[in-house]
Design brief:
mainly alpha, single chain, 0% strand
């Protein structure tokens, strides 16, 4: 298993945890939690694959990814509610997933001969659209659309830096790691410092 696969599977698990936590916060049953976990983990990557013509899409026949999603639901379902501060935990897992899936989405796109500009776009879609769909299903305003949230912007910043690092003499896996760290850092710092985009 190469470093890209580690990022993809880690991101799948983290985003599945995020989806299951959202379901728990909305008092859904185990089926609802599984649906939200699945959508959060697979939604963005599925849209990316459909847009760039990858067939079958990334999760088809991938039993390890399915096991990771089901494991995330199981773990969230058995952890005592008092041990989880939902909003903070969801935010942290989502920020980590955002970084992981942006890097993975860009790299998968580049490997399928998508140019750098659209690879960054595909990275942002990979990282944000699963959560967007999950939020819509749970009847909440998606982070992607909240006023001033540096969500897709954090993904975009890290993605652009990753593409630029591709032209530097830096080991490839380090590029991926830097991309993830930057996105997570921008997302968390912007929330803590209440940094927002200007209104129109």
């Amino acid at each position: 298993m190469n470093f890209l696969n580690i990022i993809i599977y880690t991101g799948t698990f983290v985003f599945a945890v995020t989806g299951a936590l959202k379901a728990r916060a909305h008092h859904m049953d185990i089926f609802g939690a599984t649906v939200l976990a699945f959508v959060t983990a697979y939604g963005g990557g599925t849209i990316r694959d459909l847009l760039i013509g990858i067939r079958p899409v990334n999760w088809v026949n991938d039993y390890l990814a399915l096991i990771l999603v089901l494991s995330a639901v199981l773990i969230v379902s058995i952890v005592n509610k008092r041990l989880i501060k939902f909003k903070r935990t969801i935010f942290i897992t989502d920020a980590i997933g955002l970084g992981l899936f942006t890097a993975a989405g860009i790299e998968v796109s580049l490997l399928h001969n998508v140019n750098e500009f659209y690879a960054v776009v595909m990275g942002v879609i990979s990282a944000t659209f699963g959560g967007l769909i999950a939020d819509i299903l749970s009847n909440t305003i998606p982070d992607l659309l909240k006023r001033g949230e540096l969500y897709a912007t954090a993904s975009l910043i890290g993605g652009v830096i990753y593409v630029l690092l591709q032209h530097a003499n830096i080991e490839h896996n380090i590029d991926l790691a830097i991309c993830v760290v930057i996105i997570v850092a921008v997302r968390i710092i912007s929330k803590l410092k209440r940094l927002t985009l200007p209104e129109i």
